């Protein structure tokens, strides 16, 4: 009996240390940031049972085998399409502004394509107004409508968008809708799925959220893009989910979500269509390559005809591209840098870049929400405030709702807007999209919106912040320890 008992004890002990050794090897062999690797190792060694569980769910696997195989093969097809796209020489920008040149060169080197000009772009900062314009464009569509959102929450004006989409499908427009499984759980439990499919709309549940799939892929890899593509010429993208702000998460008491979207007409729509086609193929296995640009804007258009790049991230796309783009944009700043983000948990590199910009004389402002929907991110972000304030960064906390806009403005000339939060999940994990715009007219429009955010914000005082309670500093450090894993 004693031999049996000791044998079982020895086997458990052996399995435990084999598991620790195996995970340690996997952590060390994969090139992560030192802070992320140390966080994983500390959790595994200090609280092993919890650490094993977290690693099992979130440690390595990204996509299931079928999706991963498609993602790995997808760029061979995409490169063929890009070569045909590059034959349209007249749509490419030959020269960029001084502040944007480095970033556009990075995009060209890593993505194989120059900046695309002749794009008419309009900023939309009111969600109800944005959806009304979107409904009009959906109703006027002639060929196809492709949509992808992280959240589609039925109710209010979101239902009006659904009705417009159904009516377009019934008159013969090819409609595809891709929604994240976890973000749009309310939609997939609603009658809208059946109604849309009966109307001929292809509805895809992206990255299906199912605990039974935990052994196949990570559950926290999410489809976070927000894109609407109409007739391969009109495109919407930005931070807005498909949800009525008057109804969405009102029980949380944080007010309306404040978003920023861009409506674009021009050849950049074909590039964004290529990103959508890659996502669609990863989910369905079907190829839906977008058509090449058929027309460009005249130079006498009244609105901006901006030069643009589009950057996509996620499995199957150029690795670390958005992180590199953000760093490049921040280091390009000479006079002014304004950042809006709902989640401020930057990488060490981004934190140093922002602080260095302020220390070399750039007027740096970061606008974040005063009220938050994520306790984890709220507390982990606070630990960065002291270092940012000490470097001379102004931190504004928006008080009229949850500021969900994601934007960067460099010297009122170079703009980045899209779906990317300044946190680890957006930078390294999710399917995201960022629009890069080199245009002074557009920059001034974005500046006006950002200044309106600042007007409705509270400036964080460095002296007041340094006097905060000791227990809050302890809580901040605890969440900071977990921040590389968020």
Automatic annotation (TrEMBL):
<keyword id="KW-0812">Transmembrane</keyword>
<feature type="active site">
    <location>
        <position position="226"/>
    </location>
</feature>
<dbReference type="Pfam" id="PF13091">
    <property type="entry name" value="PLDc_2"/>
</dbReference>
<dbReference type="GO" id="GO:0008808">
    <property type="term" value="F:cardiolipin synthase activity"/>
</dbReference>
<keyword id="KW-1003">Cell membrane</keyword>
<keyword id="KW-0472">Membrane</keyword>
<dbReference type="GO" id="GO:0032049">
    <property type="term" value="P:cardiolipin biosynthetic process"/>
</dbReference>
<protein>
    <recommendedName>
        <fullName>Cardiolipin synthase A</fullName>
        <ecNumber>2.7.8.-</ecNumber>
    </recommendedName>
</protein>
<dbReference type="InterPro" id="IPR022924">
    <property type="entry name" value="Cardiolipin_synthase"/>
</dbReference>
<dbReference type="InterPro" id="IPR027379">
    <property type="entry name" value="CLS_N"/>
</dbReference>
<feature type="active site">
    <location>
        <position position="231"/>
    </location>
</feature>
<keyword id="KW-0594">Phospholipid biosynthesis</keyword>
<keyword id="KW-0808">Transferase</keyword>
<dbReference type="GO" id="GO:0005886">
    <property type="term" value="C:plasma membrane"/>
</dbReference>
<feature type="domain" description="PLD phosphodiesterase">
    <location>
        <begin position="399"/>
        <end position="426"/>
    </location>
</feature>
<feature type="domain" description="PLD phosphodiesterase">
    <location>
        <begin position="219"/>
        <end position="246"/>
    </location>
</feature>
<feature type="active site">
    <location>
        <position position="406"/>
    </location>
</feature>
<feature type="active site">
    <location>
        <position position="224"/>
    </location>
</feature>
<comment type="function">
    <text>Catalyzes the reversible phosphatidyl group transfer from one phosphatidylglycerol molecule to another to form cardiolipin (CL) (diphosphatidylglycerol) and glycerol.</text>
</comment>
<feature type="active site">
    <location>
        <position position="411"/>
    </location>
</feature>
<feature type="transmembrane region" description="Helical">
    <location>
        <begin position="6"/>
        <end position="28"/>
    </location>
</feature>
<dbReference type="InterPro" id="IPR030840">
    <property type="entry name" value="CL_synthase_A"/>
</dbReference>
<keyword id="KW-0443">Lipid metabolism</keyword>
<dbReference type="InterPro" id="IPR025202">
    <property type="entry name" value="PLD-like_dom"/>
</dbReference>
<keyword id="KW-0677">Repeat</keyword>
<dbReference type="Pfam" id="PF13396">
    <property type="entry name" value="PLDc_N"/>
</dbReference>
<keyword id="KW-1133">Transmembrane helix</keyword>
<keyword id="KW-1208">Phospholipid metabolism</keyword>
<comment type="similarity">
    <text>Belongs to the phospholipase D family. Cardiolipin synthase subfamily. ClsA sub-subfamily.</text>
</comment>
<feature type="active site">
    <location>
        <position position="404"/>
    </location>
</feature>
<dbReference type="InterPro" id="IPR001736">
    <property type="entry name" value="PLipase_D/transphosphatidylase"/>
</dbReference>
<feature type="transmembrane region" description="Helical">
    <location>
        <begin position="40"/>
        <end position="58"/>
    </location>
</feature>
<keyword id="KW-0444">Lipid biosynthesis</keyword>
């Amino acid at each position: 009996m004693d031999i049996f008992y000791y044998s079982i004890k020895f086997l458990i002990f052996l399995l435990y240390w084999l598991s620790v050794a195996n995970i340690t090897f996997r952590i060390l062999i994969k090139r992560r940031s030192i802070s992320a690797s140390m966080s994983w190792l500390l959790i595994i060694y200090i609280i092993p049972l919890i650490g094993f569980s977290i690693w099992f769910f979130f440690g390595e696997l990204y996509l299931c085998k079928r999706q991963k195989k498609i993602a790995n093969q997808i760029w061979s097809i995409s490169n063929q399409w890009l070569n045909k796209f590059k034959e349209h020489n007249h749509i490419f920008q030959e020269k960029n502004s001084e502040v944007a040149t480095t970033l556009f060169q990075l995009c060209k080197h890593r993505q194989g394509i120059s900046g695309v000009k002749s794009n008419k772009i309009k900023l939309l900062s009111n969600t109800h107004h944005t959806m009304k314009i979107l409904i009009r464009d959906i109703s006027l569509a002639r060929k196809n409508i492709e949509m992808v959102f992280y959240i589609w929450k039925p109710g209010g004006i979101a239902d009006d968008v659904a009705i417009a989409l159904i009516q377009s499908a019934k008159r013969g427009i090819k409609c595809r809708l891709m929604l994240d499984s976890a973000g749009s759980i309310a939609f997939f439990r609603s009658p809208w799925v059946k109604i849309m499919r009966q109307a001929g709309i292809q509805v895809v549940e992206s990255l299906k959220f199912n605990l039974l799939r935990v052994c196949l892929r990570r559950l926290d890899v999410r489809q976070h893009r927000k894109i609407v593509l109409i007739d391969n010429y009109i495109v919407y993208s930005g931070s807005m989910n498909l949800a009525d702000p008057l109804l969405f998460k009102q029980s949380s008491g944080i007010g309306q979500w404040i978003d920023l979207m861009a409506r674009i007409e021009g050849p950049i729509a074909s590039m964004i269509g290529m990103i959508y086609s890659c996502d669609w193929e990863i989910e369905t296995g079907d190829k839906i390559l977008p058509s090449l640009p058929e027309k460009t804007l005249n130079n006498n258009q009244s609105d901006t005809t901006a030069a643009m790049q589009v950057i996509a991230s996620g499995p199957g796309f150029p690795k670390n591209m958005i992180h590199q783009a953000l760093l490049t944009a921040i280091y390009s700043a000479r006079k002014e840098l304004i950042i809006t983000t709902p989640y401020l948990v930057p990488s060490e590199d981004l934190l140093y870049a922002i602080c260095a910009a302020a220390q070399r004389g750039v007027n740096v402002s970061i606008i974040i929400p005063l009220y938050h929907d994520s306790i984890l991110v709220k507390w982990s972000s606070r630990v960065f405030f002291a270092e940012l304030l000490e470097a001379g960064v102004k931190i504004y906390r928006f008080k009229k709702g949850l500021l969900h806009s994601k934007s960067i403005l460099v010297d009122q000339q170079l703009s980045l807007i899209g779906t990317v939060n300044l946190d680890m999940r957006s930078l390294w994990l999710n399917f995201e999209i960022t629009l890069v715009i080199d245009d002074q007219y557009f920059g001034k429009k974005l500046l006006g919106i950002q200044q309106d955010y600042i007007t409705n914000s509270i400036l964080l005082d460095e002296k007041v912040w340094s006097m905060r309670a000791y227990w809050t500093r302890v809580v901040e450090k605890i969440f900071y320890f977990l921040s590389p894993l968020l």
